[in-house]
Amino acid sequence: MLYTERDSLGPVYNWVEQMPETEGGMKVLQEFIAHRPYPQCGLDANIEGVVVLQFIVEKDGSISGTKIVRNPDECLSKAALDYFNMVPSWKPGKYNGEIVACYFTLPIKYYIKRG
Questions:
Q1: What pLDDT is recorded for position 56?
Q2: How many domains does the chain have?
Q3: Is residue 115 in some structural domain?
Q4: CA–CA separation, 64 vs 60, rounded Å?
């Protein structure tokens, strides 16, 4: 299915020709995520893994429906959500040249640097 029906807000697309991105592009998003602080609770418990967030980038670039789809630990998930809420604004996706709401999946990796 190309999109998921929802109420009066219109459909949410699962795939679009031009995916949403943060202002400044995906490189800016990757740099932003790379500079996130490692949560102290994760360091204390020696926890590593990948938190996968899924959310909707709405037609106006706002974010809704954020959820965790992969969770190695609550500590890392809370840290990822808190940090994600600071991500700069988004540009919405496009399908057939039209701005549409679209799902976006974002992995955030947590690996402790050793030595």
A1: 95
A2: 1
A3: no
A4: 11
**Looking at this protein, which amino acid is placed at residue 99?**
I
Distances (CA, A) of 95 to 7, 67, 72, 79: 19, 24, 34, 33
What is the domain-level CATH number for residue 63?
3.30.2420.10
For residue 57, being part of any structural domain is answered with yes
The average pLDDT across 19-23 equals: 92
Which pLDDT does position 4 carry in this prediction? 59
pLDDT for the residue 36: 86
* pLDDT over threshold 90, residue 26: no
Show the domain range for 65: 3-110
91 close to 23: Cβ distance less than 8 angstroms? yes
If you ran DSSP here, which 8-state letter would residue 106 be given? E
Instruction: Please give the average per-residue pLDDT across 48-59, as a whole number.
Output: 95
Tokens in use for 68? 């965790």
Give domain status of residue 62, yes or no.
yes
Q: Is residue 67 part of a domain?
A: yes
CA distance 6 to 97: 21
